[in-house]
Amino acid sequence: MSEIISLAKSYEKYFKIGAAVSPRQIRKHHDLLLRHFNSLTAENEMKYDSTEPEEGHFCFDKADSVVAMAREMGVKIRAHAPVWHNQTPAWMYLDGNRPAPPELIYERIDAHTKALCERYNRDVYAWDVVNEATRDDVPDPEKNPGESPVYRNSEYYKLCGTGFMEAAFRSMEKYSPDARLFYNDYSECVPEKRNRIVTLIRGLREKGCRVDGIGMQQHHFAAPDYDEIKRSIEIYASMGLRIHVTELDVSMMAAFNQGSRRLKPGDPGFDEYIREALKATPEKLSKIDEIYVRLFEIYRSYTDVIDCVTTWGIADDYTWLDFFGMRRGMPPIKQHPLLFDEQGMPKPCVQQLMDAVK
Ligand code: GLA
Fold first, then answer.
1. Residue 130 to residues 124, 164, 230, 237, Cα–Cα distance (Å)
2. With 50 as the cut, is the pLDDT of residue 245 above it?
3. Distance 1 CA to ligand 1 centre (A)
4. For residue 320, which atom of ligand 1 is closest to its CA?
5. Atom of ligand 1 nearest to the CA of 43
6. Ligand 1 atom closest to the CA of 186, numbered from 1
7. How far is CA 69 from the centre of its chain?
8. In terms of CB atoms within 10 Å, which of 36, 122, 200, 240 comes out highest?
9. In this model, does residue 336 exceed pLDDT 90?
10. What is the reported pLDDT for 278?
11. Ligand 1: does its nearest atom lie under 6 Å from the Cβ of 22?
12. What is the rounded average pLDDT of the residues 12-41?
């Protein structure tokens, strides 16, 4: 029997294997992408500030180069993430010098969605229509008077309540009737946050919006709670949602001793502590491998509802985690959160993932 040498090919019967990419990373890892992946997501290039930096002035060069790579691979794009409280230009929230009224925001979202869909419909199979609109914590009535216990108090929410999400889903459904429409979020397996996500999706559906699926980001900053991951998949699936793992990576923190003290940026001794905590040791690297193997075991057991597993990056030479959670000005600390190493070589877990489905 010939050896299976592609992760995506070996997982064909289970789900697609995706990567978040930038034009630069595409150039660097062109052959690796062709061989091991069958879904692509633009890491930043389809976001609002990249595609419409000034109102009505669209800029598609970078997004086009991601789409060109997808065409070369013969695959489609999981597009991400037009309506989000980050990476959205300030003009969105303004009408001249005054706060924009909700109707103007809905018109802007509609025009933006139309432009994106007209250009990319034939290349896109799923959209993260709205990203990260639930809040992380319980609002303190004194510090956060009047804030919602469910929704993030973003500029969008302050100006429109939940209307901006409804507008986003309605416009996407109108202009992209054939793609699957997703709500995407992080900490999606933490029970309190998961409840907020469930409430958000139910609310959208009650308003008549088509929400086909949940994007489970799966950024792992702590040792995964495998039971909660399973429970979450089951809860989301019981709502009739398709599931895409959208931003999988495993931070060195996830391989770090749970019981250890935790310091935050600004605490005395933070720099030394974080350097130590995030230092790559052979033990931590093999722990990350082990976590991948266990996560994929779970994903495979829900292959009836999971359509795609995307890692947030291609290989360890470039990952947003090198810069995340650091004090401003601190030099990056090299992280190793992906399936391929800094040279683009498969890590030991890749062979294990392929062996598991032989
Ligand atoms: C969030 C977003 C992504 C990306 C990552 C960090 O998870 O959904 O688009 O910005 O943060 O890079």
1. 16, 9, 24, 19
2. yes
3. 41
4. 12
5. 9
6. 7
7. 20
8. 36
9. yes
10. 85
11. no
12. 98
Q: Is the CB of 134 under 6 A from ligand 1?
A: no
217 lines ligand 1 (CB under 6 A): yes
pLDDT band of 84, cuts 50, 70, 90: very high
Of all protein residues, the one whose alpha carbon is nearest to atom 3 of ligand 1 is 43
pTM beyond 0.90: the answer is yes
CA of 45 to the centre of ligand 1 (A): 12
Q: Residue 3 C-alpha to ligand 1 middle, in angstroms?
A: 35
Among all chains, which residue has been given the structure tokens 């978040």?
20
Report, as residue numbers or ranges, the catalytic residues.
Answer: 132, 247
Calculate mean pLDDT across residues 306-314. 98
The domains located in the chain, with CATH, are 7-355 (3.20.20.80)
Check if 81 has its Cβ closer than 6 Å to any atom of ligand 1: yes
Q: Is 88 in the pocket of ligand 1 (CB under 6 A)?
A: no
- The candidate with the shortest Cα–Cα distance to 168, out of 121, 123, 118, 117, is 117
Q: Are 314 and 25 in contact (CB under 8 A)?
A: yes
Instruction: Please indicate whether residue 20, judged by its CB atom, sits closer than 6 Å to ligand 1.
Output: no
Cα 232 to Cα 201: distance, rounded to the nearest angstrom:
14
Model confidence at 1, pLDDT cuts 50, 70, 90, reads very low
Instruction: Choose the residue to mutate in 247, 248, 311 for probing ligand 1, maximizing ligand atoms within 8 Å of C-beta.
Output: 247
Amino acid at the residue 306: I
Per-residue pLDDT at 261:
65
247 lines ligand 1 (CB under 6 A): yes
Place of tokens 């809040």: 135
